[in-house]
Amino acid sequence: MIDGITVYNFYIEMVVALAFFVFRIPRRSMFVCRLVGTLAVLCGLCYLLLFTVPEFNVIWDITRYILLFAAFVAGILFCWKVDIGQALFCGIAGYGVQHVICKLNVVLRLLISMFSGKDLVWMYYIITPILYVLIWLLWGRRAKNSSTSFHFTMKTQAGLAIALLICTTVVSQVFDFEFSGGSLNIYLAFVALDIIFAVFILIVQFNLYIFAEMRHDMAEVERIHHFETQQLEQTKEMIDLINVKSHDLKHQLLRLQGGIDESEATELLKTISLYDSTVKTENEALNVVLMRKNLTISEEGVSFTPIIDASSLGFMKDGDIYSLFGNLLDNATEAVQKLPEGRRSVTLIVKNIPGFVSVHIENEFAGELKFKGGLPQTSKADKTIHGFGMKSISMLVKKYKGTLSIDTADNVFSVDILLPHNEKQSN
Hints:
Blueprint: H1 7-22, H2 31-51, H3 58-79, H4 84-116, H5 124-138, H6 154-178, H7 184-256, H8 262-276, H9 284-297, E1 303-308, H10 318-336, E2 345-353, E3 356-364, E4 371-372, E5 375-376, H11 389-399, E6 403-407, E7 412-420, H12 423-426
Parallel strand pairs: 1-2
Antiparallel strand pairs: 2-3, 3-7, 4-5, 6-7
């Protein structure tokens, strides 16, 4: 027996705990063969290191747990597409969870035996699954996006691994040896301290995950924003050229109208009018956005109502305007595509109020929206490459020290933005 569980219990607990953190990570080629081989090797190694050496050998107890930790991390590297920092992250999280559950199990069994007068070994098989479910609900299921794009520095993860091994292996094994047969109260107090240390490291890991996710999202939003800024310049040139050509074609058609079929001439004039009917505002970047959307909205059967006073948008960079309004309109028009034609309408209102620019956009939507961090989540399957539109909007609002509010009452999705501006900057 080792810490009140058999070698096979330790092995199974480690595999289950690690599964919480690796099951969504991209896998290497021939994954099944790699996984089966790795599990077999780890099972044999656990038996060899934990079951064939006398228990009361402190140095060896410490060494074999460190070797097992390294072996499980190596197994992660072998089966999943991760670097050493990511493998250490998963290894630390899994090993920490296993250790906490193991020690909680020991404490609960000891307490039960104190009151019942019996060592109910079978309680392990009830307590352990319950504890794993609780850990999953509290943490495991939150790691929904264990993408390899989240990088964890080798130095940080190595430091946490050393801290975890010290508190869960070195100190724990030395104490178990020195105080075996000693005071039960002292032992329980020490185990409680051991659990607190391990939980603290798990909390640090969870926060590192959150920060890594935030860094990833910010980098992706910045990349998209840079692309949109480049796209703005290209679209400006294209629209200028289209406007010139459409103007010339319109006049030529009017001169030739008697020489071609009237219905064909009407259809051509209608098509050309799409380029002339775009709302013109006081802001060139916003005009580009409206022009781009106008070319697609009519084909999608969307009714677009713009009420815009862009006279005070001068304090914003052109690229930011293009990104902000482009994302707002893209999200709205994409949402109404799921509605019947008669309900596909988008309203955009931009107005100047003392000291602020107010932006309001609304549209109906179908289905149920899920929110995370106050922002709606994308309904598309691959959330690693979609869902950055609202994050980009939120970042731009924060950049200009504005406020963002979202409402979904009566299946109408509305976004309200207030951006403070300096009158001198906007003129």
